Amino acid sequence: MEVLSILIPISLILGAVGLLAFVYTVRSNQYDDPEGDARRILSNDWDDRPKP
Amino acid sequence: MTAQLRPSLAACPACVAGPVEPARPVPEDVQIALSLPGIHCSACISTVERALAAHPGVEDARVNLTLKRALIKAAPDLRAADLIPVLERAGYEAHELDPGALNATQTDRAGRDLLMRLAVAGFASMNVMLLSVSVWSGASDATRDMFHWISAAIAMPAIAFSAQPFFVSAWGALKVKRLNMDVPIVLAIVLALVTSLWETSLSGEHAYFDAALTLTFFLLAGRYLDYRTRAVARSAAEELAALEVPRAIRMEAGRETEVPVAQLVVGDLILVRPGGRMPVDGEIVEGRSELDRSLLTGETLPVFAEPGFAVSAGEVNLTGPLVIRASAVGQETSLHRMADLVAIAESGRSRYTSLADSAAKLYAPGVHILSALSFVGWYIYSGDVRTALNIAAAVLIITCPCALGLAVPAVTTAASGRLFKKGMLIKHATALERLAEVDTVVFDKTGTLTAGMPEMTNLDGMSREDLSIALALAQASSHPLAVSLTRAARAADVEPASVEDLTEVPGYGTEGVWNGQRVRLGRAAWVGATHGGQTSAWLAVGDHSPVGFLFTDALRPGAEETVAALQASGKQVMLISGDTTGAVEALAARLGIANWMAEALPQDKVTRVQALTGQGRRILMVGDGLNDTAALAAAHVSISPASALDAARVASDIVLLGTDLSPIAGACDTAKKATRRIRENFQIATVYNIIAVPLAVVGLCSPLIAALAMSTSSITVSLNALRLR
């Protein structure tokens, strides 16, 4: 059962990484226009070069 | 020149084709905001952004599809009015928004805060659930104790942070000695934590850390959905308020200055251009024109206006520029005086108790009594505080209104989302429930069933020659009748005759010279004709007797279908208008409405609606004008189109975003289905309580059963809500 002393911290750290990633997405306004962003990926307007 | 300069110093050519759009490319200092009710797909985004970016002066444009808005960063001298035609050419309806009125940041913060708490609760409950699974699958002794302690270490801070909204709300209710839904929730969470800590410190078998966290998570999910629905409605309502950008042109020593309406004072001279709306009450001092008063009174016939004529705020100037002297501004205008009538009508509206409120009223005391009784019962039976407390906690957790908390928000979110896509904005929280009960629909005529746009009726009876002269004269004017005549004549492939010396005489019409003869198109009296009952424009060629062009108000798109669909679903449809008997009767006959009332004053509309309500009818009022405002407030539920006056939109529960009326009939069905789903959800939650509560009371409810029952009921309730079509 010694493996638990490694597994439990690992699982907690992985979970915390997920939580932090989510907090980052919220803070960088990625939920402002969910519908538009889902569709923008289908448009090929700026595929060849970035928007100036 | 984008707001966010992207470092495009790619080291390799391939990197240029990397992820294109940065995560936050919303122009930062937005100067112009446009509402685009018609956009719906990815092609729309590209078309709109490309059309806007191609316009000189636009630095950056970003479309938000969820909110159906375009935010534009532009050169300081660019106006929204310059961009609207650009989008109209691209095929999109656009309206100007006041960027200052869209204070998105404030509402955003509250939503983000809830989302953050939801995320923390989700993270913690997953971790604790993982630990609990190992306990349920047989971990024992020291391992079990260690798992419980770790769970406690995660659960305590997580709940302290995530469950704050419940703590605050419950404390608020207790302070004024009342019970709300949050009191049993907080009690359950706190009791579960305390007994679990106690059990853990005694190396006990049962700990409810996972249950307390899952409970918080599901309840927060319900809160968040509820918040989202309201935030969408609020932001769209803000958008409607922002649609009216109130400015006026003040004459200062012969110079024209544009000022906000709020700065006008009594005695100011104000210039109102053709097509403009009167910002204040006043008297005409200069100019001749015609006024469209349909939003105030429902009359479709424009009235003649000359110096000395009194005008009220909200009337639209049609032909010539007018200078008016303000006699009442702001709150004193006749527009605002109508608000008193609304206040009276609103106090008459019966207080509606929402389904959720009536459920909570039954529920909250029941939960406390049941839990207290099981504590007392077990204490007397076993004489052990620990067992009794454990069981009381189990009962509270099981009965906690977890599914109930999701039952209503999940359905209203689904339903309002559907209706928003169809172009309806639900402004009021209980509007859907009330809409489901409707059995009588009362329509206003002008601006609601009709588009407020004249349509020519006797094109076939005209000679080509008359038409071509009329077209030449009409082209020179922006009067609605002239515009309509031009459109009809062009559609019939009429070529304009060559008329010289074209002049528009404001308030009367246009005149010119054709083949050496004087030709006039305009008001009956001006050309020497006698006025009939119908809206008309007259053409006089030389000394010949004048010919009349007759007009009727064009129907709003979807009006016929809506009336037919409402009648087919067994609702009684009525028409109450302030317009003349002839016009109302003709429209009623055209739409097949048997019950109509013409020449109704605002007061008449309210009394009629109240009388019908007194007969036990549930009335849906659809109207747009100021004369409808009080009736809108008095009805059981009310709808107004986005083109309505601000006052009418504020008074109504639902706003139609597009120009089409047809979503109304569908909305009634959706509302009925939504209410049925809410009731079903309450039933599901009750059934689950009936099964699980006896188990909890007799002490057979382990944390595993509690977790299973809670999750299944919450998930069934959410899935049931998603079934809504």
TrEMBL record, chain A:
Q: Can you name this protein? A: Cytochrome oxidase maturation protein, cbb3-type
Residue segments, region Disordered: 31-52
Q: Which PANTHER family match?
A: FIXS PROTEIN (PTHR41532:SF1)
Annotated TM spans = 6-26
The answer to whether the entry has keyword Transmembrane helix is yes
State the superkingdom: Bacteria
Q: Which InterPro entries match?
A: Cyt_oxidase_maturation_cbb3 (IPR004714)
Q: Compositional bias of type Basic and acidic residues: which residue ranges?
A: 36-52
Transmembrane helix as a keyword of this entry, yes or no, is yes
Keyword annotations: Membrane, Transmembrane, Transmembrane helix
Automatic annotation (TrEMBL), chain B:
Q: What is its main location?
A: membrane
Please verify whether the record's keywords include Metal-binding: yes
Q: Name one GO biological process term.
A: copper ion homeostasis
GO MF term set: ATP binding; ATP hydrolysis activity; copper ion binding; P-type divalent copper transporter activity
Statement: the UniProt record of this protein carries the keyword Transferase? no
The protein's UniProt keywords, in alphabetical order, are:
ATP-binding, Cell membrane, Ion transport, Magnesium, Membrane, Metal-binding, Nucleotide-binding, Phosphoprotein, Translocase, Transmembrane, Transmembrane helix, Transport
Q: Where in the cell is it found?
A: Cell membrane
Q: Which domain of life does the protein's organism represent?
A: Bacteria
Q: Where is the HMA domain?
A: 30-95
Signal peptide region: none
Q: List the PROSITE patterns.
A: ATPASE_E1_E2 (PS00154), HMA_1 (PS01047), HMA_2 (PS50846)
UniProt cross-references to CDD domains, sorted A to Z: HMA
Q: Name one Pfam family in it.
A: E1-E2_ATPase
User: Which GO cellular component term is one of those annotated?
Assistant: plasma membrane
Topology relative to the lipid bilayer, per the entry, is: Multi-pass membrane protein
Q: Give the family from UniProt.
A: Belongs to the cation transport ATPase (P-type) (TC 3.A.3) family. Type IB subfamily.
The name of this protein is Cu2+-exporting ATPase
Q: Which organism is it from?
A: Ruegeria marina
